[in-house]
């Protein structure tokens, strides 16, 4: 059975109403028979003959039998009508109470049979409609919205079928929109969560980098302070060293002057030694001449010859000593000359060192000023970095909260989509 149109109620013609004919025919025959019997009985009683009396008795008996027959026919007809009527009343009562599984067993070709068929048709058609609608609603409750729409319902069934079909169409559209929206929400929340996680990770890395930078700047600031202190100390050291270099330069000048005096004195001594050497040479010649004269004098000049020899030896030693002294003085003069050159070079180096010390001292003063300014700038940078670090930490916390909320939204969207996917929709 595809729809209610397949159900057809058999209809009887008026000529098929046999109960009415049977009742009418039975009562007519009974009435005629009783009337005849009664008439004959009356005639027999009025007659005085014995045979007529016997016939009258027979007629009376027949009349009694007829009456009994009518009574029997009546009860038979009543039984025939009341039993199916009671069954139909019981079926109608249960039908009114919502029981559509009532089984009407009475079948006949008369009016009661037609009424029973009409009851069966009504219950069958209503049971079919209710079962089909119930099955649809059960499928809908189970999540199956791919059902075909109800068709073939007419009369008062049509609005019910239309309402069920409208519900199916509306639920299909709603769940399709839910699936589409949940997918979009899931994708969007995943993108937001991914972006928030990247932002949180970037903020965390940035915060870590800022902390490292802050630590580095603090270390640099400490080093700058230490460098400033070292520069200040170096300035005092350089000032002291400059004073010492200047003092050493003065002493070197004095030493140069002394060495120059030594050189002059050595030259004077060299001249004197040359005079002594010349005197020794002349003395040696005189001693030689004296020895010659003593040899000429013979024995008288022997003692003088000895003195002349001693004088000559002394002159020779004096000449040797003069030569050695000359050599020593020349070496001394040479060394003094070398020392003077070295001292001059040292003096020039000290002068250059003094000038460079002055330049270094000026440069260090500038470095000290720059270090002080750098320390001030680093202090300002440190304050700015601390403010940036606070903002980055706030952004990191906000990004983490946003990522958590997006992940929760994505999870809820997935749950919604999972639940929506359990519903079977139309293609």
From TrEMBL:
CDD domains attached to this UniProt entry: HAMP
Keywords for the protein's UniProt record, in alphabetical order: Chemotaxis, Membrane, Transducer, Transmembrane, Transmembrane helix
Keyword flag Flavoprotein: no
Gene Ontology BP terms: chemotaxis; signal transduction
Family annotation (InterPro entries): HAMP_dom, MCP_chemotaxis, MCPsignal_dom
Domain Methyl-accepting transducer per the UniProt entry, residue ranges: 181-410
Bilayer-crossing regions: 23-46, 52-75
Name of the protein in its database record: Methyl-accepting chemotaxis protein IV
Lineage: Bacteria, Bacillati, Bacillota, Clostridia, Eubacteriales
Record gene name: tap_1
């Amino acid at each position: 059975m595809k729809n209610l149109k397949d159900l057809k109620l058999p209809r009887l013609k008026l000529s098929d109403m046999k109960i009415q004919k049977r009742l009418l025919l039975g009562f007519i025959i009974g009435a005629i028979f009783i009337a005849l019997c009664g008439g004959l009985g009356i005639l027999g009683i009025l007659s005085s003959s014995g045979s007529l009396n016997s016939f009258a008795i027979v007629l009376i008996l027949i009349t009694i039998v007829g009456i009994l027959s009518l009574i029997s026919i009546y009860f038979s007809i009543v039984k025939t009508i009341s039993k199916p009527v009671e069954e139909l009343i019981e079926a109608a009562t249960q039908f009114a109470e919502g029981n559509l599984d009532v089984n009407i067993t009475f079948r006949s070709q008369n009016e009661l049979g037609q009424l029973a068929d009409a009851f069966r048709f009504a219950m069958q058609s209503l049971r079919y409609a209710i079962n089909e609608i119930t099955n649809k609603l059960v499928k809908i409750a189970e999540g199956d919205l791919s059902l075909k729409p109800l068709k073939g319902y007419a009369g008062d069934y049509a609005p019910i079928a239309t309402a069920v079909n409208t519900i199916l169409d509306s639920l299909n559209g709603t769940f399709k929109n839910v699936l589409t929206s949940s997918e979009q929400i899931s994708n969007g929340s995943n993108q937001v969560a991914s972006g928030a996680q990247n932002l949180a990770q970037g903020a965390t890395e940035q915060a870590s980098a800022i902390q490292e930078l802050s630590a580095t700047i603090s270390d640099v600031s400490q080093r700058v302070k230490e460098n400033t202190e070292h520069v200040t100390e170096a300035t005092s050291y350089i000032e002291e060293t400059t004073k010492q270099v200047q003092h050493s330069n003065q002493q070197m000048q004095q030493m140069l002057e002394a060495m120059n005096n030594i050189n002059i004195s050595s030259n004077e001594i060299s001249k004197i030694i040359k005079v002594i050497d010349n005197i020794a040479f002349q003395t040696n010649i005189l001693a030689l001449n004296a020895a010659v004269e003593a040899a000429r004098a013979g024995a008288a000049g022997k003692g003088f010859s000895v003195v002349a020899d001693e004088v000559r030896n002394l002159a020779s030693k004096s000449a040797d000593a003069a030569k050695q002294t000359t050599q020593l003085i020349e070496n001394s003069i040479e060394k003094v000359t070398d020392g003077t050159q070295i001292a001059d070079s040292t003096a020039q180096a000290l002068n250059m060192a003094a000038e460079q010390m002055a330049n270094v001292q000026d440069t260090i003063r500038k470095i000290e000023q720059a270090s002080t300014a750098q320390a001030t700038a680093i202090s300002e940078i440190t304050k700015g970095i601390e403010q940036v670090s606070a903002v980055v930490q706030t952004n990191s916390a906000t990004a983490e909260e946003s990522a958590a909320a997006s992940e929760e939204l994505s999870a809820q969207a997935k749950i919604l989509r999972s639940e929506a996917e359990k519903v079977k929709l139309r293609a």
